Amino acid sequence: MTHPAYLLRRLALVWLLLAAIPSLLLLTQNQLFPLIDLQSPLATALYWLTTTGTAPYGVATVLVVLALAYRYMPKALFINLFLAIGLSQVLSLSTSHALKSFFKEPRPNLVYLAEQALPEEAQLTPNTFYQLAHSDRSRVIAEALNELQTRPSGLTLSPNIKQHWEDEIGYSFPSGHTIFAVTLVLTASYYLLLAGLPLFTSALLAWGLLMGLSRMLLGMHWPQDVLFSTLLAAIISSLSIFLVSKIRIFTQGFVKASSQ
Hints:
By secondary structure, the chain is mainly alpha-helical. It has helices at residues 4-27, 41-50, 57-72, 75-103, 108-115, 126-129, 134-148, 159-167, 176-194, 198-217, 223-259.
């Protein structure tokens, strides 16, 4: 059994690594979009990685983690992991939706498109954009991109990323993908480290780091979105682990008392 103090230090290190890049970007007042060619193989790879946190594929990601954990973890510990992941994901999803509606921050790609000197029929502004229906928002994004891609020096996107821009037309703050990924990483890592599975934890950490990077590089989120989401995920993960431990202790005590 891993010593609790050692386990907490390892988890703190995992969280610091996840928060390091957005923190540095925020402190230096830089961002990663538009840094890479969004038609490049790198951009395509980041798009496919970001889909692992996009509904409904995020469900498959959770199921893969659970299946691997079930295969390699003691079953009693797996039950705790299963309950904590389920609770943390419900909390992260509901919290993300509530905060997006409250802060109403436009996405970086929308701000970028609004700053371009587009013809009047393709021009957009963040304020008017979010007053449109969802289907109209997708149409406006598509029209702006089609106009921009006709220019020799204009921004060009791969078909998948272009479609992603047209589909992700909600608010930016916080990053739902990052909350999903970091909550899953931290919650699962607690039990994986407890079970003595550091390689599994390292793989999850790499995935969580790349998720945050992909959201910024693809123009979907600002550094503050990713950083706050990383902090919020730590709170949700800690709360879920704590509640599950208390529930399990209570139920086990109740079962023992009932059997006597």
